[in-house]
Amino acid sequence: MKENALWFALAAAVFVWILMSRLGKVAPARAHQLVEGGALLVDVRSPAEFASGHLAGATNVPVSDMAARAAELAKQGKPIVVYCASGMRSASAARTLKSAGAEVFDLGAMSRW
Predict the structure, then answer these.
(1) Cα distances (Å, whole numbers) of residue 52 to 1, 27, 42, 108, 109
(2) Integer distance in angstroms from the first to the last C-alpha of the chain?
(3) What is the mean pLDDT of the chain?
(4) What amino acid positions are annotated as catalytic residues?
(5) Gap between the Cα atoms of 107 and 26, Å rounded
(6) Residue from 73, 66, 72, 111 nearest 93 by CA
(7) What is the per-residue pLDDT for 19?
(8) I want to staple 45 with a disulfide (CB 3.0 to 4.6 A). Which of 5, 49, 69, 104 is the partner?
(9) Confidence at 22, pLDDT banded by 50, 70, 90
(10) Which of 23, 28, 63 is nearest to 43 (CA)?
(11) Predicted local distance difference test score (pLDDT) of residue 3
(12) One-letter-per-residue 3-state SS of 51-91
């Protein structure tokens, strides 16, 4: 009985983690549509990560620089699709951009493209 409860708790934890990691993320197909329609594609990883490989057409604005550049990006008046390595930094960047008035779509991990 105790073993079943442990497995149930583990399964529940994994389910919650998956749900929370995808919560608020734009679907990859929708992200493609947005970018094809003129949305800015912004990689919020470090310059070194960006240099090692990035999505075609992406602009690098590290999450550490986002607060200083959010207004500049928002003023362009285009939707913005953000991504990073795991989805944590893109979520942070999305919040910053939204507070600057931008229309933001968080892809999350680059691998979802």
Answers:
(1) 50, 25, 15, 18, 15
(2) 42
(3) 91
(4) 84
(5) 5
(6) 66
(7) 52
(8) 49
(9) low
(10) 63
(11) 75
(12) HCCCCCCCEECCHHHHHHHHHHHHCCCCCEEEEECCCHHHH
- Domain total of the chain: 1
Percent of the chain at pLDDT > 90 equals: 79
For residue 37, tell me if it sits in a domain: yes
Residue 7 is assigned to a structural domain of this protein: no
Can you tell me the distance from the alpha carbon of 85 to that of 92, in angstroms, rounded to the nearest whole number?
13
Q: What is the pLDDT of residue 5?
A: 74
Flag whether 15 is in a domain: no
Residue 14's pLDDT band (boundaries 50, 70, 90)?
low
Domain that holds residue 90: 25-112
The pLDDT tens digits for 35-73 are 999 999 999 999 999 999 999 999 999 999 999 999 999
CATH number for 95: 3.40.250.10
> What SS3 class is residue 27?
coil
Amino acid (1-letter code) at residue 17 = W
Residues 1 and 96: their CA atoms lie apart, in Å, by 47
- For residue 16, tell me if it sits in a domain: no
